[in-house]
Amino acid sequence: MRWEEIDSQVCSIARALAIFGDRWTLLIIRDAFRRVRRFSEFQKSLGITKHRLSDRLTRLVDSGILEKRMYDEKRSRYEYRLTAKGLDLYPVLMSVVNWGDKWVCDEDGSPVVFTHTQCGHTCHPKMVCDVCDGEIVATDIEPSVGPGVAQKVSRGDWSPAMGES
Asked: Cα–Cα distance between 111 and 160 in angstroms, integer?
């Protein structure tokens, strides 16, 4: 399967990676969470070429992750804001941060720490079960076929050869 076809897999990971799975896109989203809004600000922060930045911003807007808002009508200038869909990527970014802090930091330690404004403490976000609030770790999870595959199988639209998560 070619990268351009990755979004056709019956796999939530593959479909998500089709939107934000390249070198620059998660960094653009990271900057959007840091309140970087304007094209020139993204370019300055990332050192990315105008063409590549324009392409990634367009993809994020088309995917509903960012919205483009005019801030200067006279000069037709826009800024980019996270949508609700974009804001829902925060746990993804924090998971990457936690992994990076644990496995790829240098001896100086974490480059950024996060303070939970409700309690004032430095925190390390974690995933918890939405039913029992217990921490989720890989060894305590058992994946099984979900309705997205079961419906396709019952219609004859899917087989294991088509890919799975």
From this structure: 42
